[in-house]
Specification:
alpha+beta; 6-stranded antiparallel beta sheet; 11 strands; 31% strand; rod-shaped
């Protein structure tokens, strides 16, 4: 966000300096000698100045829009850690350039996996899906046959995730799927 503010301010500062130079040029060189000349040259010069001014303002808006789109597609988290029931880290699922992933498990419920979105591997049950929307991750349970839970920061209670309701994920949340925990990093 600081880069976009700095870029916008730099463009506006350059625009201001340009307009000061243009005003000096108009008042010192054009207007004193334009008494016998047609005003067409002066009008075309002012038109060029207006086009440049509009282009600079458009550049500020385009830079701001580009930064906003970039923020929407960027994950606020680095990865998800899959922790076994014994407390060992089984897998780290990196989120760079990902917009969605599945939480799956074996049919017997003893193992949980984090997979790229799409079709899960054969013989796996889908617990839920996580989607990146406007810079936030949302968790949604796809089936109520296997319970999933969500523990929020500073709370002792684990909330059961209801089917097809998106839950906003925060950095300190813990997701529970059968005997595994999924920590947000």
């Amino acid at each position: 966000m600081e880069k976009s503010k700095t870029a916008g301010r730099s463009i506006l500062a350059c625009l201001f300096i340009y307009l000061l130079i243009q005003i000096y040029y108009l008042s010192s060189y054009i207007l004193p000698f334009a008494q016998g000349e047609s005003w067409e040259k002066l009008a075309s010069l002012l038109l060029i100045q207006s086009v440049f001014f509009s282009g600079c303002i458009l550049a500020v808006f385009v830079c701001d829009l580009w930064q906003h789109r970039k923020r929407e597609c960027t994950s606020p988290f680095v990865s998800f850690l899959l922790v076994s029931g014994e407390g060992k880290i089984k897998h780290e699922f990196f989120l760079q350039n990902k917009r969605s992933f599945l939480i799956t498990g074996k049919k017997d419920g003893k193992e949980v996996f984090l997979e790229d979105a799409g079709m899960p591997q054969p013989g796996r049950f889908i617990y839920g899906v996580c989607n990146l929307t406007e810079g936030n991750w949302y968790l949604e349970a796809l089936s109520s046959k296997r319970a999933m839970g969500l523990k929020r920061e500073n709370e002792t209670m684990i909330y059961k995730i209801k089917e097809e309701i998106p839950y906003l994920l925060r950095k300190s949340d813990v997701i529970y799927a059968d005997t595994c925990k999924i920590l947000i990093k």
